[in-house]
Structures are given as C-alpha cells and as structure tokens.
Design a protein that fits this description.
about 500 residues; mainly alpha; two-stranded antiparallel ribbon; 20 helices; globular
Length: about 500
C-alpha cells in the first residue's frame, strides 16, 4: 500500500512539474515575436493583476499607456493580443471581417453544443442565427414595438415622480434595471412582467444573480482560464452542478432552504417553457423577437451547417446556402442571451447618461431644449414617435459621447480568426518595425483596447476627458471607434 502511494505521488509530482514546464515555455510566445507586454507570473500569467483590480478593461488601459498601442499579455498561459491602433482594428473588423468574424469563446462555452446563441456560435452557425434574428431590429419592426416601450416608459416616469416627491436621494440604477427588463420581456418575448412594480419578480431576481458573486460559474470560469487543457472537464462539472441543484430543489423541497437555484439553469428552463407555451398558442399578431424565431423554428435537434463562415467550396467557388431555421435549443439560448445582455448593458448606459446629466447642468439644459423643440406645446403629454426620436441628432450625439467616455462592456470587443490569414500587417512600435503574419492571430485571442481609443485616440485628440457635443460630427470621419462600441450588437 505504501509503495502504491509513493508511486502515485511520484506520478503526480512529475505531472505537475511537466505541466508547469509546458506553461513556462508558453510565456516565450510574445518574446519571440518582439511584442512588448507586462511580465507574466508562472501559472497565473497576468491574471492576478486583473483579479486585484477587478476590471480587465482598466488593466488593459494602464498597460497600453506603458507598452504601446499593440502589446500582449497572458490569461493563465493563453496569449492575448491587445490592439488599440485604429488602422489595424479597421483591418480586423471591416476589411478582413471574413477572417475575424468569430468572437473569443467564453471559457465554459461549447460551440458544438445544441444550445448555442449568437455570442457563442461560430462560422455558418453564427451567420445562420444572425440571418434569422436580424430582421427583428429593422426600423419597421421597432416602430411596431414603440407602444410597448412607451408603456414601460410611463411606469418609469411614475416611479421617478414618486421619488421626486419624497425629496430624498435614491439609487436610479435599480429603476433602470427594472425598466430595462420590463421592456425586454415585453418587446422581445410578449410577456408582461411588471418588474417595475414587483421588485421580487423571479425573472428580475435571477437576472441580477447572474452578475452576483455567489454564482459557481466564476469558479469554473477561472479554472478554465488557468488550466485550459481541462476545459471539457470544467464545463461538464459546471453543467452538472447546475442541473443537480435544479433537480434537488424541485424533487426534494426541503433542500430549497440551503441550496440556491442556479440562475442560468432557471432562466433557460423558463425559456423552454415559454417556447412550448407559445408553440401551443400558435401564431399571433404581436411582433416580437420570440415570435420571429418561432416562425423559423425547426423540429430537428441539430442543424448541420457545413463549411465555415465565408469559406467557399474550392471546386465550385460557391458558398453553401444557409438553412434559414433555428432549433428549439438555439431559440432558448438566444432568449437567455438577449435577456442577460440587454439587462446589464442598457441599464448601465442609462445610469452613466443620468450621471453625466447630473454633473453637467448646462449640457442637461441644452439637451432638454433640444428635445422640447420636437414636442407640440399644446400636447406635451403625447409620446414621441420612432421617426421623431430618430430626428433628434443632438440626443444621438449626447448618447454616443457618453458611451465614448464610459464604454459599456469593453472587454466584449474581441475577435479570434477562424482561418489562416495570408497577408501581412506592418505594425509600428515606438522602437522598431515588427512584421506580424496575421496567421499569428489565428492562434491568439484579440482584444480591442476600447478605453485607450476612446480617451487617448489620435482620432479625437482629446487632452482630457471632457464633454464636446458641439464637435461630435467632426469625429466621425473614422468610424472604427463607434464600431468598437457598437459592433457586438450586430
């Protein structure tokens, strides 16, 4: 028995040493390419700095000031290339989009799973889903949703009036979160949740928990970053833990007292029930995202998409046709995506806008006069139409400038090439010219340094972070900045 234990310990020790040696060699990647960057720590890479600051975007911003507009860092032993050069980003996001259409894979995501959405899907699978879902955001569809948005706005304004009458400070972001969720569920899925009046609504509660610290998702995500070779194991454990919690709570009621429901599992479960109910009801006259996806629903469990996105058949030079369908698993996953993504980003943007208005009263007054000019003085209570809002150019400038100052979810702006890129990019560092074969980026993850571009980019040449609504139209000659902020919605 003692001999067996000794053998096992020896094998374990050898395995650990061999793995650490493998990790150590990975840190030579950027050094061999003469790409600068912060020095990594064995096993952790540069991720300890991220954990300390709790804001990857802030670390990237600080590293950019120190190492330049193109540098590399490591998450665990995974090399990440950060680019804050607008010309290079334009090449990646626009000119070479066919090579860089795929986003960086979320640590626990499986691109081959049945239930992928537009964020986790790759290749033709992503293209097919976007093709089906994209018409929801056409001007015609948005105009039809305007009355539903107005209804949510009226409730929000009633809440603001109540708080104003109390004449006490309050947290406006909480109201924006409820307003956002109310609007998403009403316009997107045809469900009246009344979250603005019912703060204990389970959809709202579980959505908030998705961004909380109690979720075991964080643990498995970190493990995947540090020991990426065991990605499949961590993903399986993550899914199993969530399913086990869900099963125990629903089959052994006493466990509800000490086992919390996994928010992602609960939301996906509700999405499947909602889809089933909607299919039983059949087609309705209401226009929303769920109805549009159900019209393209397939009875198949999995749709075979064939070749990768934008990859043509070498013999016929013809791209394979898209299957204009979604499986029920993909529909449920996209319901989950739009609820979570829209909840946090929109409410945060509204909070920043409120902050800027409160801290810049002169601009607030100017914007108010601009909006009032589009209202009929004799009928001020009438809600503006979609076309009227689209004409408010100064309002559009205000929102865009706020997003420049306070970009939402900047780390989401990332790419990974899915094909070998044969051309060369010449990148000018402060001290040398470095030739990068873009096939390098096929191996690397690529992140856009949004904060650096928005604050210190040569495009706007700002010396300090100040408000410049009046000069906004002069900054749109190069649209890469706005692509970086808004491209992930597409």
């Amino acid at each position: 028995m003692l001999l067996l234990t000794s053998v096992l310990l020896t094998v374990l020790l050898i395995t650990i040493v061999a793995y650490l040696w493998h990790v150590r060699k990975a840190y030579d990647y950027f050094t061999k390419l003469n790409i600068p960057g912060p020095p990594p720590t064995l096993f952790f890479g540069n991720f300890l700095d991220v954990i300390k600051s709790r804001r990857l975007s802030l670390n990237i911003y600080q590293w950019t000031k120190k190492y330049g507009r193109i540098f590399g860092y490591y998450e665990g032993h995974t090399p990440i290339l950060v680019i804050s050069d607008p010309d290079v980003l334009q090449d990646v996001f626009i000119k070479s989009f066919s090579n860089f259409h795929s986003r960086r894979l979320f640590p626990l995501a499986d691109p081959n799973a049945k239930g992928v959405n537009m964020i986790t899907a790759l290749g033709v699978r992503w293209k097919r889903q976007r093709f089906v879902i994209n018409p929801t955001f056409s001007s015609a569809k948005l105009k039809q949703m305007t009355p539903l948005i107005h209804q949510s706005v009226r409730v929000l304004m009633e809440k603001m009036s109540e708080e104003s009458n109390r004449n006490q400070p309050f947290d406006i972001s909480a109201y924006f979160k409820r307003f956002t969720m109310d609007t998403i569920w009403s316009c997107g899925f045809g469900i009246e949740t009344d979250m603005q009046n019912n703060i204990k609504n389970p959809y709202l509660v579980y959505s908030q928990q998705m961004f909380g610290d109690k979720s075991h998702l964080r643990l498995f995500a970190v493990l995947t970053i540090f020991i990426t070779e065991l990605r499949t194991l961590w993903r399986t454990l993550h899914i199993s833990v969530g399913q086990l919690k869900h099963w125990l709570r629903h089959h052994i009621p006493i466990t509800k007292a000490f086992i919390e429901e996994n928010p992602a599992t609960w939301i996906l479960s509700q999405a499947r029930q909602m889809i089933k109910k909607q299919q039983e009801i059949g087609r309705t006259s209401r226009v929303d995202l769920l109805q549009l996806m159900l019209e393209s629903a397939s009875n198949e469990e999995y749709i075979q998409d064939g070749l990768a996105n934008n990859a043509n058949n070498e013999e016929t030079d013809i791209e394979p046709p898209l299957v204009r369908k979604l499986t029920k698993h993909e529909i449920a996953s996209n319901v989950f995506l739009f609820m979570i993504a829209g909840y946090e980003t929109t409410s945060t943007a509204l909070s920043y806008i409120s902050y800027v208005l409160a801290t810049h009263p002169n601009e607030q007054l100017k914007l108010q006069h601009h909006i009032d000019s589009y209202f009929d003085p004799e009928n001020e209570d009438q809600m503006p139409s979609y076309d009227t809002i689209a004409q408010m150019d100064y309002l559009d400038m205000f929102i865009r400038e706020t997003l420049r100052m306070y970009p939402i979810a900047p780390i989401v702006i990332n790419r990974q090439s899915t094909e070998t890129f044969v051309s060369r990019m010449w990148v000018l560092f402060q001290w040398a010219h470095v030739s990068l074969l873009t096939s390098i980026i096929y191996i690397l993850m690529l992140i856009c340094g949004v904060l650096s571009i928005h604050i210190h980019s040569i495009l706007n040449d700002l010396k300090q972070n100040v408000i410049r609504w009046h000069g906004f139209h002069l900054e749109q000659d190069h649209e890469t900045v706005w692509e970086c902020v808004l491209l992930w919605w597409k």
